[in-house]
Amino acid sequence: MSSIICNVPVDVSVPPRFIVNLDLPPMLRWQYILRLYIDQLREVEKKIESMVNKIVGQWIGPMLESVLSTIMAGITQLGLVYYGQELKGISHTTGIPLGKLVMMQFVYECVSCCTSIICQDEETNTPMHIRSMDWGLDVLKQLTIDVDFQRNGQTVFKATTWIGYVGILTGMRVENGYSVSVNFRHTGGQLTTNLKTALASGWPIGFLVREILESIPQYDLAVEQLAQSPIIAPCYFTICGTSQNKTFGTLLTRRQTSEENR
């Protein structure tokens, strides 16, 4: 499958490409990339901390950080996510406290506005999955990268993402070829519900997408897992597939615990 997948701001044409070796211990996977971007990541840390404090208050912000860190520890121990060690490695390399890194994972997912389009080039039959990520944090432009996630020297899936975020909001499975993008539903009044769902073992959305891209090669199975898995916030999943020069797609509208429609 040949696909255009992009969440790069419009004034950044080609982000740098890196390899994340899934055969390495999780704490070491991002180390060499992080060392190139520590200053920029620290700047994002400060801006996100300021943003959260403005939204919830300077006294609630640190408390929220602690709560989210506890949630992450709980769902990691339950086996729902496998990226706790990666976050510990990022914390160790950058000096950013683990609790703040956990909060950054959730903030990345909660304050984005985005658009996804699936189409096919009429001349070449090339499927195209096009997406935008509209952010108020300009500093994230400096942290936008393309990543090839490899095992045994072979690329399993590709993603466009931000340094310091271990989930995937835009990615493509190489074998059999399908792609996924996440668009968030701002339905209002969701913070309490989202925290309750997280405590009840719902997936952080980007973690679910990454797990599916890493472990499920088939389009149909990926769609069903995205439709059925409990998640911590409402969203839209756009999935693009191809077969015999035909492009097809599915738009899933998700509640936290069930599919709303497709």
Explain what the structure shows.
The chain is an alpha+beta fold. It has one domain (17-261). It is 36% helix and 27% strand. It is built from 8 helices and 10 strands. The chain has helices at residues 31-34, 38-56, 60-77, 84-94, 98-110, 191-199, 205-215, 219-228; strands spanning 17-21, 113-120, 127-134, 144-151, 154-162, 170-173, 178-184, 235-243, 246-254, 259-261. Helix 2 packs across helix 5 and helix 3 packs across helix 5 (98-110). Residues 1-10 have low confidence and may be disordered.
Q: What does the secondary structure layout of this molecule look like, with pairings?
A:
Layout: E1 17-21, H1 31-34, H2 38-56, H3 60-77, H4 84-94, H5 98-110, E2 113-120, E3 127-134, E4 144-151, E5 154-162, E6 170-173, E7 178-184, H6 191-199, H7 205-215, H8 219-228, E8 235-243, E9 246-254, E10 259-261
Parallel strand pairs: 1-4
Antiparallel strand pairs: 2-3, 4-5, 5-6, 6-7, 7-8, 8-9, 9-10
Low-confidence stretches: 1-10
Cα-to-Cα separation, first versus last residue? 23 Å
Describe the oligomeric state of these chains in a short phrase: single chain
SSE pattern, N- to C-terminal = EHHHHHEEEEEEHHHEEE
- Report strand order across the widest sheet: 1-4-5-6-7-8-9-10
Question: Quick one: overall form?
Answer: globular
Number of domains: 1
Question: What is the strand content?
Answer: 25-35%
What would the keywords be for this entry?
single chain; alpha+beta; disordered N terminus; 8 helices; 262 residues; 27% strand; 8-stranded mixed sheet
